[in-house]
Design a protein that fits this description.
The protein has a single domain, classed as Porin (Beta Barrel). The protein has an 8-stranded antiparallel beta sheet, with no helix packed on it. With 107 residues, the protein is an all-beta fold. It is built from no helices and 8 strands.
Length: 107
Amino acid sequence: MTGIGKWSAKINVLFMKLEGIVEIREHDGQYTFDFPPPERFKDVTFRYFDVYAEGDTIHGKGEASAFPGKIFEVEATFHGDTMTGKIILPFMGNKEIEIKDGHKIGD
């Protein structure tokens, strides 16, 4: 499965620049994600669904408890130990947020 491991990336969300860490794992042939939110959003939980891989890219949808009922889409493409991608916010006119400078920080 592509993208398995612990990754760090920069995300510019609206007026904030964040560095996020996500751990991507495989369980029974399905992707699982551990995404501890930054301290200022520590009470926000995430739910992920419709996740699938296509070549070196993982696609999926999610929902954050801070925005109930608002679905976002994520695409992340992996190139060895680097990663790029985007978060698409359909509830904000399909605004795209770039995921950049992604790099593997653990297995």
